Amino acid sequence: MAFLEIKNLSRSFGGLRAVENVSFNVEKGLIKAVIGPNGAGKTTLFNLVAGALEPHSGDVIFKGRSIYGLPTHRIAWRGISRTYQNIKLFNDMTVLENIMVGRHRKSRAGFLRAMVPLPGTRREERESAEKAAGFASLLGLSDVLDARAGGLDFGRQRAVEFARALASEPELLLLDEPAAGLNIHETLELADLIRKIRDMGITVLLIEHDMSLVMDISDEIAVLSYGVKIAEGPPKDIQKNPEVISVYLGDDNA
Amino acid sequence: MKISSHLPVALLGAIVVLFQVLMSATGTDYLLIQLTMSAYYALVVLGLCLLMGYAGQISMGHAAFFALGGYTAAVLSTNNLTQLFSAGVLEWLVQKGLIILSTDAYGAAAYRAPAWLSLGTAVLITVAVSFAIGIPVLRLKGHYLAMATLGFGTILYRIFLGTRIFGEADGISAVRPCEILPGLFVGGDPSQRVFNYYFAWILLIGALVLLLNLVRSRVGRALRAIHGSEEAAGAMGIDTARYKLNIFVISAVFAALGGYFMTHFNGGIGPSEAGIMKSVRYVAIVAVGGMANLWGCLLMGVVLNFLSLRGYFGSYDDAVFGALLIIIMALAPEGIFRKESISRIKELTRRLSWPFWK
């Protein structure tokens, strides 16, 4: 039984079949990438796994239990965190507060305990702040803890999003085009970071445009084209796959 | 962090005491009446501030929750329970100690609920109604939500206005005082004026402390996260629907508590308390005080209601609040207690005054 099983996933929008009968597995502890040209259905697939889209048919099984069609917050509680291609931070909150929201699943205080904070609640709050600060320093954000997240530059906002996702101590991390908008230097740093995350024992599933990043860091790659999986395997096989080459470079070059 | 949170509250407490001492000493303690009422209205504003500012939900029906608490107090503590229950049921309730049997001014039997029971009922009814309204309505966003709560407010207003047990257009008067401690009543008796002032303000400051704690907690961060990006909040494991519903219920209960005690203090309540104009007024005050600014909302809740109750706005009372809403939305959508807002208002007054003195 694989860690994450994507089984016969299909989703259409009106007449457009965005994802059609896609299946693949993600093994625990690996970095798996889903690539494909624009409109290949990557984002749809991703949103189906993350619970951001209502499913049509198929199944997504995480650690032996279906998560398909669950609301996003319940998928999160199963141990899955995500980042967004177009960063979604809580702009008016500080960097530390953003990351502390990532600790939501690791803390318990409800409305009553929040309104009347007893020593136990205060301790939990302190621990949340300390852990969050730890993840901030991992991402090099220690000097902007009290800065408003919406006011940071793009690279740092991406770092806050990573820290927030990591703060929830997920077992599976979903990365939606993490290199989008980054320069070459930042992309190299990102590659190191993603490897570091894998070495922390977190399984990573990413969708990505940037081929150099994907070939560099992925343990396995699945290729989508027009909603259909056309290839799957380790990077060096994918690079040689004639169908993948034709999809990316056009038929004339094949 | 400790000092920064406790010092302002202590300062507010000191000011409250100072006002009472000064007013009692100078023979102006009739002002305590309006300050007491302002505190109850400010309680509604605080709850609404939490809902609007921290959870990003607009309610145009909060006056209805205020009235719900008020009418529950009025109906259960005034002697018309014979309209609600048959004689047999009333006998049984009296035997169980749930209803007090006394005689009215004409010597006829009068049934009324003890304070703890009517207060409990007011809270329970409010929780039930706000849950029932909140579950379908909170799926809506922005102005759809505002319209749905507006509809709810309208319905409740017409129910209070058109139902005999609620006194129809006259409302309910001669509501009994509510005994808090032996010899201490929430009511209009002048001998209880100082007690009522302190009771209302302890309630308000208590509510403020609870909410200040809440917004600084895990729950407060979750609410602000929902406000910032509902999608990302969900992806972090926050059950956005449940949080929004809970905050709606809490703010409704705050409004109902304000209405409950206000009705005992005033000795009556009328349908206008449930009216749309009242709801608009609460929203306007939150807008002035700042959507996510509990202190600003408390201050403006007290000051604006005090001015209104003292009659400073004359017959243009509602118009003043309408105008405030327009001005704030145009000039200082974050409330007036913000640096940007103050400079924007200064800039405007400069530009407006320029042609006149040139």
Explain this structure to me?
The complex is a heterodimer of chains A (254) and B (358). Chain A has 254 residues and is an alpha/beta fold. Chain A folds into two domains: 1-79 and 170-254, Rossmann fold (3-Layer(aba) Sandwich); 91-167, no CATH class. Chain A contains ten helices and ten strands. Chain A has helices at 42-50, 72-77, 95-102, 111-115, 119-138, 154-167, 184-199, 211-217, 235-240, 242-249; strands at residues 4-13, 16-26, 31-35, 57-62, 65-66, 80-82, 172-176, 203-207, 220-225, 228-233. In chain A, the strands form two sheets. Chain A has a six-stranded mixed sheet with strand order 6-7-8-3-9-10, with helices on both faces. Chain A has a four-stranded antiparallel sheet with strand order 2-1-4-5, with helices on one face. In chain A, a hairpin with a 2-residue loop joins strand 1 and strand 2. In chain A, helix 3 runs parallel beside helix 6 (154-167). The longest helix of chain A has 20 residues, at 119-138. The model of chain A has no long low-confidence stretch (mean pLDDT 92). Chain B is mainly α. Chain B has one domain (2-357). Chain B is 69% helix and 5% strand. In chain B, strands 1-2 form a two-stranded antiparallel sheet. In chain B, helix 11 packs across helix 12 (294-309). Chain B is globular. Chain B starts with a helix and ends with a helix. Classes of the chains: A alpha/beta (254), B mainly alpha (358). The interface between A and B is medium-sized, with 39 and 27 residues.
Secondary-structure map:
The complex is a heterodimer of chains A (254) and B (358).
Chain A: E1 4-13, E2 16-26, E3 31-35, H1 42-50, E4 57-62, E5 65-66, H2 72-77, E6 80-82, H3 95-102, H4 111-115, H5 119-138, H6 154-167, E7 172-176, H7 184-199, E8 203-207, H8 211-217, E9 220-225, E10 228-233, H9 235-240, H10 242-249
Parallel strand pairs in A: 3-8, 3-9, 6-7, 7-8
Antiparallel strand pairs in A: 1-2, 1-4, 4-5, 9-10
Helix pairs in contact in A: 3-5, 3-6, 5-6
Chain B: H1 2-25, H2 31-54, H3 62-77, H4 87-95, E1 100-103, E2 109-112, H5 115-137, H6 142-162, E3 172-173, E4 178-181, E5 184-186, H7 193-215, H8 218-228, H9 230-235, H10 240-266, E6 268-269, H11 276-289, H12 294-309, H13 317-331, H14 339-357
Antiparallel strand pairs in B: 1-2, 3-6, 4-5
Helix pairs in contact in B: 1-7, 2-7, 2-10, 2-11, 2-12, 3-5, 3-6, 3-10, 5-10, 11-12, 11-13
